[in-house]
């Protein structure tokens, strides 16, 4: 199924369905939220959501999105939510089936067979922010999602949730597997790629995330993902998502 988003962003509220779902962005970006985390769908990548998992989707303005619904057991896909690089071949199969899949049943069956055999071979990536059900961490996540420019340090967040700094640090590591700084950085990367994919400038994204300078933002981005923002998004578009394999 193909969905072209208008000039304003679109949100699909929390829901679930029996079939598994691949959310694939050909243009713009989508942020998926599941009980265990936030997952980013940059252009030419996809997020796999297993069947019966509750989730919501928020698409950037002018996004071009494809939903691929997969019957349980039809392909050897993960039983957890994950980001997948999408190869040029798989991309073209998805587009063809969405736009012309009703034209010829026998042709559709062949393309679907190839798609289901290729999809499990796509590399799994780690562009997500783990979310815990722990109430104090949920408070922090909701606050950061609402205002990602909040640069409060660990000690300030600890006071807000009535914990010592060391207790909050241990709690974040235990619940997410990441340090507090790395955990918050994941949210910044998700927001940054989403906004850059929708057409925002590096300067605007840097300011929206509360960085003191564009250089500081670019340094963070390059250290985390190996390339500066413009080069990174360009390589994703050219290589069908393979830039995420690093």
TrEMBL record:
CDD domains from the xrefs? cupin_NimR-like_N (cd06124)
Q: Record's Gene3D superfamilies?
A: Homeodomain-like
| Keyword Transcription regulation (UniProt) | yes
Task: Tell me where in this chain the HTH araC/xylS-type domain is found.
Answer: 138-235
Keywords of this protein's UniProt record, alphabetized?
DNA-binding, Repressor, Transcription, Transcription regulation
* Pfam (any one): HTH_18
Statement: the UniProt record of this protein carries the keyword Repeat: no
Segments crossing the lipid bilayer: none
- State the InterPro entries in the record: Homeodomain-like_sf (IPR009057), HTH_AraC (IPR018060), RmlC_Cupin_sf (IPR011051)
Q: Which SMART domains match?
A: HTH_ARAC
Q: Which GO terms describe its molecular function?
A: DNA-binding transcription factor activity; sequence-specific DNA binding
Q: What is this protein called?
A: AraC-like DNA-binding protein
Q: Which organism is it from?
A: Mesorhizobium sangaii
